[in-house]
Amino acid sequence: MAKFSKDDALKYHSQGKPGKIEVVPTKPYSSQRDLSLAYSPGVAEPCLEIEKNPETAYEYTAKGNLVAVISNGTAVLGLGDIGAMAGKPVMEGKGLLFKIFAGIDVFDIEVNEKDPEKFIEVVKAISPTFGGINLEDIKAPECFEIEERLKKELDIPIMHDDQHGTAIISAAGLLNALELTGKKIEEIKIVVNGAGAAANSCTQLYMMLGAKLENIVMVDSKGVINTKRTDLNSRKKPFATSRDITTLAEAVAGSDVFLGLSVAGVLSKEMVQTMNEKPIVFALANPNPEISYEDAMSARPDIIFATGRSDHPNQINNVLGFPYIFRGALDVRAKCINEEMKIAAVRAIAELTKKAVPDVVNAAYNIKRLTFGTEYIIPKPLDPRLLTTVAPAVAKAAMESGVARKSIDDWDAYNNRLRDLMGSDNKMLRRFYEIARQNPKRVVFSESNHLNMLKAAEAALAEKICYPVLLGNEEKIGNIAAENHIDLTGIEIINLRHDREEARRIRYARYLAAKRGREGMTFDEAYEKMYERNYFGMMMVETGEADALITGVYSRYADSVKAAKEVVGIRDGLNHIGAMHIMNTKKGIFFLADTLFNRHPTTETLIDITKLTYNTVKFFNHEPVMAMLSYSNFGSVQSGSPASVHEVVRTFHEQFPEICVDGEMQVTFALNQQLRDEKFPFSKLKGKKVNTLIFPNLSSANTAYKMLIEMGLADTIGPIQMGLNKPIHIVDVESSVRDIVNITAVAVLDAMVNEQREWNEKVQEL
């Protein structure tokens, strides 16, 4: 789990604009006409339409994408009843998660009212504003009454996530665990330790999936909930067992499943040892589970174990569910979130776990290959497929169960829209950072005398995405750092030209001379190169003494490329390398290539660039739909660069028909699907949204991406190196600190995947 100080947390919430969310206009507002349309008198027209038909509020207002996160602060995280205002940071945080995972806007509403009846009236009174309501951090048993009443009296999705979120995610994990153990849900014996909102909801959902009440024992702080007790409220009585047992230890003996929603340390190794074979233990108390991971695994080698923590396998995390459940519910204007929709979410999450895991997810968790099994019964929170898996399942269930007010007819188009959401608001970049933090690598910053490179190394360490290594003179670097208030604590500096590095220079020179000897490189020539930052740093990567390298802020890219080709080399089967920029726009994510290396590419060069781009886009978990750009369309000009592009397309159609690529075409037809389908119905891209643009030369590609940036139409990640054997990334000379840090995150991902690729090759050799 991430470590931070109290000061870190307070600074995060207070620096810059206080809080974590803001309201951003979605319509033009630059002219007087715009303002007149936005407010008076133009706003009267949609008001009158809504008065005539309230359903049109979904068309003319933000209602359809707006969720209220509402709390009275009576059960905030592990803090308890701290009050509505004190709980506001949590509610803002929940709003942030809705936005970054599912593109849903949120108003957080803190209601200073503990009386359930009054609280219900408040929520009902403000409900017209919202398309859905997420109840949060309300203590039991009041939360049950509040949710039930609101569900009955309102016609929008209502969900108390503390109850149902944990239930849905744990149920998905339970189904998969049962499949692995060969047990049937209707036969298993379940012990639930805890009797609050989450425990109640989990138990009810398990029963909907087939668990039998007579096989369930619930335990609260006073012991087993049995029929002899006289202190049971209406929420506990239905789960009272007639078995003559009173303690947790008695309940656990001979059970198949333990679900903990209580406090740390209540489940002992000895108790686990009394469970049936292949026990399933979900110890979900946070931050510390009912039994530690180490104790659980040592108690039973046949155990399937899950917690709420990110530092152990099988994290039961509510973020796997609520953003996508509300997304699906909102998109069909559901009147509620019913049991059918919850079960659809359960089964969608469970099934996703069994599918092949994208490389980007494997890399994130430093696992060579995640596969369905005892340590992978639930998807990872960083899996980008959750949005396009869970949301459609929930939407379909709403439609089939009759609670949807809007139908989705074109599911391919819907999934495309969801994929666009994955790119907006820097979700992709945020995912890169999260992945890098899971498995930080040793990254060399070769041009550390440059201020931006030095600042980027400091920022990358603070972001915990890598372990920076600076090349250069310690004194000079220290002086630059001191003058600019840069903290170098924890950052390694290697003075490559110092006498103490002589042995390493000699070793590197011998390695390089041996590798390139038949290309005319002598030891003396190789030795001289070891006084150059790029050669020395790239040799660190080549020999495994570092994982990646960043350069380019003042090196000529041609020199950097030459060094990279000599030291790490180009991947087998290719003769060229390329660079790609990822453009994050309001219309989704676009991939542009080649944006850095090949000035006047030949047909053969373009073929390599297209292959590299296809594989790189796949790595980022997008299905490449590729347009080969030109100033002409489909053979209308049969000479010059259009003819070269035309030949590339012909080659791909003949030799790689599985790749979705077509052209040559003007950018207008590439980006305007309707126009392209009308004018060129024969295109292989018919009915598809293009997300990848291959340019005919460096001039057009470089101009295009820089124009988008300067006009404020896109955020960018790049240039991303494609085709070298090792993670060597060459940035633009004008790159900002943030640009360099972003590329560092990409370089770490690249290093992770390189490790995995090398591991796969070794396995194949065996």
Please state the overall shape, judged from the principal axes of the Cα atoms: globular
Q: How far is it from the N-terminal to the C-terminal residue, by CA? A: 36 Å
What is the number of E strands? 21
* Number of continuous helical runs: 30
CATH topology label of the largest domain: Rossmann fold
C-alpha Rg, in Å? 29 Å
Given as residue ranges, the uncertain stretches (5+ residues, pLDDT < 50) are none
CATH homology-level superfamily of the largest domain: NAD(P)-binding Rossmann-like Domain
Helical fraction equals 40-55%
| Average pLDDT over all residues | 89
Kindly estimate the percentage of residues that lie in beta strands according to DSSP: 5-15%
Give a quick account of the main beta sheet: strands, pairing sense, barrel closure.
6 strands, mixed
Question: Which CATH architecture of the largest domain is right?
Answer: 3-Layer(aba) Sandwich
Assigned CATH class of the largest domain:
Alpha Beta
Q: What is the structural class?
A: alpha/beta
Q: In the residues, how many domains can be counted?
A: 5
Strand order of the largest sheet: 7-6-5-8-9-10
Short description:
This protein is α/β, with parallel strands linked by helices and 766 residues long. A 6-stranded mixed β-sheet has the order 7-6-5-8-9-10, sandwiched between helices. Strands 18-17-19-16-15-20 form a 6-stranded mixed β-sheet, sandwiched between helices. The longest helix is centred in the last third of the chain and has 29 residues, at 737-765.
